[in-house]
Amino acid sequence: MANRSTRRYVLSVAGSAAVVLAAGCSDLGGYTGGGDGGDTAPKSTTNTGENSDEATEENPVVGDAEQVGDLALSSPAFDDGQPIPRTYGRDDADVNPPLSVSGVPDGAETLVLVVDDPDAVEPAGEVWLHWLVWNVPATRTEIPEDWTPEQATEGVNDFGERGYGGPAPPDGEHKYRFKLYALDTSLDIPTDASKRDVGDAMRDHVLASTQLVGMYAP
Q: Hey, CA dihedral for 116, 122, 124, 126, is it positive or negative?
Protein backbone atom coordinates (compact mmCIF):
# COMPACT_ATOMS: atom_id res chain seq x y z
CA MET A 1 0.00 0.00 0.00
CA ALA A 2 1.44 3.37 -0.95
CA ASN A 3 2.24 5.85 1.79
CA ARG A 4 -0.38 8.60 2.01
CA SER A 5 2.20 11.30 1.41
CA THR A 6 3.21 9.78 -1.93
CA ARG A 7 -0.27 10.03 -3.35
CA ARG A 8 -0.96 13.61 -2.37
CA TYR A 9 -0.29 16.51 -4.62
CA VAL A 10 -0.41 20.18 -3.74
CA LEU A 11 -2.42 22.57 -5.86
CA SER A 12 -1.85 26.29 -6.10
CA VAL A 13 -3.20 28.26 -3.15
CA ALA A 14 -2.22 31.74 -4.26
CA GLY A 15 -5.78 32.75 -5.10
CA SER A 16 -7.18 31.62 -1.76
CA ALA A 17 -4.31 33.22 0.12
CA ALA A 18 -5.16 36.52 -1.55
CA VAL A 19 -8.79 36.18 -0.52
CA VAL A 20 -7.80 35.41 3.06
CA LEU A 21 -5.49 38.40 3.23
CA ALA A 22 -8.11 40.66 1.70
CA ALA A 23 -10.61 39.56 4.30
CA GLY A 24 -8.15 40.46 7.04
CA CYS A 25 -7.98 36.93 8.43
CA SER A 26 -4.50 36.63 9.85
CA ASP A 27 -4.80 33.13 11.31
CA LEU A 28 -7.01 30.45 9.78
CA GLY A 29 -5.05 27.51 11.06
CA GLY A 30 -5.02 24.86 8.32
CA TYR A 31 -7.95 26.45 6.45
CA THR A 32 -5.90 28.21 3.79
CA GLY A 33 -6.05 25.74 0.90
CA GLY A 34 -7.49 25.95 -2.61
CA GLY A 35 -11.08 25.83 -1.43
CA ASP A 36 -13.55 24.18 -3.80
CA GLY A 37 -15.98 22.66 -1.33
CA GLY A 38 -18.85 24.00 -3.37
CA ASP A 39 -20.63 25.78 -0.50
CA THR A 40 -18.96 29.17 -0.57
CA ALA A 41 -20.53 31.62 1.85
CA PRO A 42 -18.69 34.96 2.19
CA LYS A 43 -19.38 36.78 5.44
CA SER A 44 -20.83 39.75 3.58
CA THR A 45 -23.60 37.74 1.91
CA THR A 46 -26.71 36.02 3.14
CA ASN A 47 -26.29 32.25 3.19
CA THR A 48 -28.83 31.46 0.47
CA GLY A 49 -28.91 30.26 -3.12
CA GLU A 50 -25.56 29.33 -4.62
CA ASN A 51 -23.81 30.10 -1.33
CA SER A 52 -26.21 28.12 0.82
CA ASP A 53 -25.39 25.06 2.87
CA GLU A 54 -29.01 23.92 2.70
CA ALA A 55 -29.54 20.66 0.84
CA THR A 56 -31.57 20.86 -2.35
CA GLU A 57 -32.97 18.34 -4.77
CA GLU A 58 -30.66 19.81 -7.39
CA ASN A 59 -27.51 19.03 -5.39
CA PRO A 60 -27.91 16.43 -2.64
CA VAL A 61 -24.38 16.73 -1.18
CA VAL A 62 -24.87 20.36 -0.14
CA GLY A 63 -25.97 20.73 3.47
CA ASP A 64 -26.78 17.95 5.90
CA ALA A 65 -27.45 14.45 4.59
CA GLU A 66 -31.02 13.59 5.52
CA GLN A 67 -31.74 10.13 6.86
CA VAL A 68 -33.26 8.23 3.97
CA GLY A 69 -33.80 4.50 4.25
CA ASP A 70 -31.92 2.24 6.66
CA LEU A 71 -28.43 3.28 5.56
CA ALA A 72 -26.20 3.83 8.60
CA LEU A 73 -22.66 5.11 9.13
CA SER A 74 -20.79 4.73 12.42
CA SER A 75 -17.23 4.70 13.70
CA PRO A 76 -15.53 2.57 16.37
CA ALA A 77 -13.37 5.63 17.08
CA PHE A 78 -16.14 8.02 18.17
CA ASP A 79 -19.90 8.15 18.69
CA ASP A 80 -22.26 10.40 16.77
CA GLY A 81 -21.98 13.96 18.05
CA GLN A 82 -18.88 13.19 20.14
CA PRO A 83 -15.24 14.35 19.80
CA ILE A 84 -13.10 12.92 17.02
CA PRO A 85 -9.83 11.55 18.49
CA ARG A 86 -6.89 13.87 17.93
CA THR A 87 -4.93 11.28 15.96
CA TYR A 88 -7.26 11.94 13.02
CA GLY A 89 -6.57 15.68 13.07
CA ARG A 90 -4.54 17.64 10.56
CA ASP A 91 -1.76 18.32 13.06
CA ASP A 92 -1.48 14.72 14.24
CA ALA A 93 -1.43 11.51 12.17
CA ASP A 94 -3.88 13.07 9.69
CA VAL A 95 -5.43 9.75 8.68
CA ASN A 96 -9.12 9.00 8.29
CA PRO A 97 -10.97 7.36 11.17
CA PRO A 98 -12.37 3.86 10.65
CA LEU A 99 -16.00 3.74 9.53
CA SER A 100 -18.68 1.05 9.44
CA VAL A 101 -21.46 0.92 6.85
CA SER A 102 -24.75 -0.94 7.18
CA GLY A 103 -28.26 -0.89 5.77
CA VAL A 104 -27.24 -0.45 2.13
CA PRO A 105 -30.44 -0.84 0.11
CA ASP A 106 -31.04 -3.45 -2.56
CA GLY A 107 -30.25 -2.08 -5.98
CA ALA A 108 -27.39 0.09 -4.78
CA GLU A 109 -24.30 -0.03 -6.98
CA THR A 110 -21.95 2.48 -5.38
CA LEU A 111 -21.48 4.68 -2.32
CA VAL A 112 -20.38 8.30 -2.08
CA LEU A 113 -18.67 9.66 1.05
CA VAL A 114 -18.38 13.38 1.76
CA VAL A 115 -16.69 14.82 4.85
CA ASP A 116 -17.00 18.55 5.38
CA ASP A 117 -17.01 21.29 8.00
CA PRO A 118 -19.99 23.67 7.91
CA ASP A 119 -18.56 25.72 10.78
CA ALA A 120 -15.70 26.85 8.54
CA VAL A 121 -17.98 29.38 6.84
CA GLU A 122 -17.19 32.05 9.43
CA PRO A 123 -13.35 31.82 9.44
CA ALA A 124 -12.76 30.60 5.88
CA GLY A 125 -15.74 31.89 3.92
CA GLU A 126 -16.95 28.45 2.84
CA VAL A 127 -17.96 24.99 3.96
CA TRP A 128 -14.59 23.24 4.06
CA LEU A 129 -14.25 19.94 2.21
CA HIS A 130 -12.07 17.38 4.02
CA TRP A 131 -12.72 14.21 2.04
CA LEU A 132 -14.59 13.24 -1.11
CA VAL A 133 -14.83 9.64 -2.31
CA TRP A 134 -17.09 8.23 -4.99
CA ASN A 135 -17.71 4.92 -6.75
CA VAL A 136 -17.14 2.99 -3.53
CA PRO A 137 -18.56 -0.53 -4.11
CA ALA A 138 -21.93 -0.85 -2.40
CA THR A 139 -20.79 -4.18 -0.94
CA ARG A 140 -18.23 -2.47 1.30
CA THR A 141 -19.16 -2.56 4.97
CA GLU A 142 -15.93 -1.29 6.53
CA ILE A 143 -13.66 1.64 5.72
CA PRO A 144 -10.42 1.05 7.63
CA GLU A 145 -8.28 3.68 9.29
CA ASP A 146 -5.85 5.33 6.85
CA TRP A 147 -7.77 3.85 3.93
CA THR A 148 -6.33 3.86 0.42
CA PRO A 149 -9.27 3.22 -1.94
CA GLU A 150 -8.46 0.68 -4.60
CA GLN A 151 -11.88 0.45 -6.25
CA ALA A 152 -13.05 4.01 -5.71
CA THR A 153 -11.99 7.56 -6.59
CA GLU A 154 -10.83 10.20 -4.11
CA GLY A 155 -11.34 13.82 -5.05
CA VAL A 156 -9.25 16.85 -4.13
CA ASN A 157 -10.05 18.36 -0.73
CA ASP A 158 -9.90 22.03 0.21
CA PHE A 159 -6.32 21.69 1.42
CA GLY A 160 -5.49 21.11 -2.25
CA GLU A 161 -4.67 17.44 -1.72
CA ARG A 162 -6.20 14.26 -3.05
CA GLY A 163 -7.62 12.16 -0.23
CA TYR A 164 -8.41 12.80 3.41
CA GLY A 165 -7.45 15.99 5.23
CA GLY A 166 -8.07 15.98 8.96
CA PRO A 167 -9.84 18.55 11.12
CA ALA A 168 -7.93 21.79 11.69
CA PRO A 169 -10.36 24.36 13.12
CA PRO A 170 -8.74 27.76 13.71
CA ASP A 171 -11.37 29.23 15.99
CA GLY A 172 -12.77 26.74 18.49
CA GLU A 173 -14.81 23.56 18.24
CA HIS A 174 -16.20 22.67 14.81
CA LYS A 175 -18.71 20.10 13.61
CA TYR A 176 -17.58 17.59 10.97
CA ARG A 177 -20.16 15.80 8.84
CA PHE A 178 -19.43 12.34 7.47
CA LYS A 179 -22.15 12.05 4.82
CA LEU A 180 -22.85 8.77 3.04
CA TYR A 181 -25.04 8.19 -0.01
CA ALA A 182 -26.08 4.95 -1.72
CA LEU A 183 -26.53 5.29 -5.48
CA ASP A 184 -28.14 3.08 -8.10
CA THR A 185 -25.28 3.78 -10.50
CA SER A 186 -21.57 4.52 -10.74
CA LEU A 187 -20.42 8.06 -11.56
CA ASP A 188 -18.64 8.68 -14.84
CA ILE A 189 -16.98 11.98 -13.94
CA PRO A 190 -13.41 13.34 -14.05
CA THR A 191 -11.08 12.58 -11.17
CA ASP A 192 -10.74 16.32 -10.50
CA ALA A 193 -14.50 16.71 -10.00
CA SER A 194 -15.54 19.06 -7.20
CA LYS A 195 -18.07 18.29 -4.49
CA ARG A 196 -20.75 20.11 -6.46
CA ASP A 197 -19.80 18.17 -9.60
CA VAL A 198 -20.28 14.92 -7.71
CA GLY A 199 -23.60 16.15 -6.35
CA ASP A 200 -24.80 17.14 -9.81
CA ALA A 201 -23.89 13.69 -11.16
CA MET A 202 -25.71 12.01 -8.26
CA ARG A 203 -28.99 13.76 -8.98
CA ASP A 204 -31.91 11.32 -9.33
CA HIS A 205 -29.67 8.38 -8.34
CA VAL A 206 -29.71 8.54 -4.52
CA LEU A 207 -31.44 5.52 -2.99
CA ALA A 208 -30.50 6.22 0.62
CA SER A 209 -28.42 8.62 2.70
CA THR A 210 -27.21 9.11 6.25
CA GLN A 211 -24.83 11.22 8.31
CA LEU A 212 -22.36 10.79 11.17
CA VAL A 213 -21.22 13.90 13.06
CA GLY A 214 -17.97 14.32 14.95
CA MET A 215 -16.67 17.32 16.90
CA TYR A 216 -13.11 18.63 16.98
CA ALA A 217 -11.43 21.56 18.76
CA PRO A 218 -7.89 22.95 18.43
A: positive
The verdict on pTM exceeding 0.90 is: no
Q: Where are the domains of the chain?
A: 4-52+65-216
Q: Which of 17, 35, 27, 2 is nearest to 156 (CA)?
A: 35
CB-based burial label for 184 (10 Å; 0-12, 13-18, 19+): middle
pLDDT tens-place values along the chain, 218 residues long: 444 443 443 333 333 333 333 333 334 556 654 455 555 433 333 333 333 465 556 799 999 999 999 999 999 999 999 999 999 999 999 999 999 999 999 999 999 999 999 999 999 899 999 999 999 999 999 999 999 999 999 999 999 999 999 999 999 999 999 999 999 999 999 999 999 999 999 999 999 999 999 999 99
For residue 13, give the 3-state DSSP assignment: coil
Strand pairing report for 174-183 and 206-216: antiparallel
Q: Residues for the chain: how many in total? A: 218
CATH topology for 4-52+65-216?
Answer: Phosphatidylethanolamine-binding Protein (3.90.280)
Between the alpha carbon of residue 128 and those of residues 91, 103, 110, 150, 209, the distances in Å are 16, 28, 24, 25, 20
Residue 79 gets the label, from left (phi > 0), alpha (psi -120 to 50) or beta, of beta
Q: Do 74 and 85 contact (CB within 8 A), yes or no? A: no
